[in-house]
């Protein structure tokens, strides 16, 4: 059994609670599908925890913004948060983020952050037609923050959702498990109020964190 996490986005409270569940399930192998950074204030804590656990991670678009100095063309608030994190992230964690691959092939499971046409920043609708042209049987990506499992004949796709900023109307953190043939989505409660307080203490207004309280169903990245 493996666990798939994605889109942590500096939300250490959500990450801690998610790991508590994964550890209680006895799962030892975990993959992170990108976007460890962005949006929330505890970027070093998240990086430190993932490094300590030797978790294999994929480069997400927010990770890419941070390590390259590039900006997000879709969102001023995303850039505000990335700019804040550039000032506080440790050199060790910055170097670690820079080492991430774009794709991980974990046995028969293919992992990217965005999509298979653009691993970093593709938003796509999972369809039979989309996966017809891609070699493999089991696929997982993050980026949309919306958990799902889709079946296309002999091919199966899973989005584990977001640990740090769910966008499906459910405020709980989301992750997935994979046993070699079946994906399962799980949800985790965590201390949202603490995340909001830490963002306020970092100088951010409520616009930047109140979306966590509703699972941000109408949030535009």
Low-confidence stretches: none
| Secondary-structure-derived class | alpha/beta
What topology, given as strand order, has the largest sheet? Answer: 3-2-1-9-10
Distance between the termini: 32 Å
- Our count of domains comes out at 1
Summarize the main sheet.
Answer: 5 strands, mixed
**Gross CATH architecture:** 4-Layer Sandwich
By CATH reckoning, the class would read Alpha Beta
From the alpha carbons, calculate the radius of gyration and give it in angstroms: 16 Å
Instruction: Please provide the ordered H/E string of secondary-structure elements.
Output: EHEHEHHHEEHEEEEEH
- Measured as a percent range, the helix fraction is 25-40%
Q: Give the overall average pLDDT.
A: 95
Number of strands: 10
CATH fold field value: Purple Acid Phosphatase, chain A, domain 2
| Helical stretch tally | 7
Q: Beta fraction of the residues?
A: 15-25%
How would you briefly describe this protein structure?
This protein is of the alpha/beta class and 221 residues long. The chain has helices spanning 12-24, 43-52, 61-68, 76-88, 91-98, 128-132, 192-201; strands at residues 2-5, 29-32, 56-57, 103-106, 109-112, 138-141, 148-152, 155-159, 173-178, 183-188. The strands form two sheets. The protein has a five-stranded mixed beta sheet.
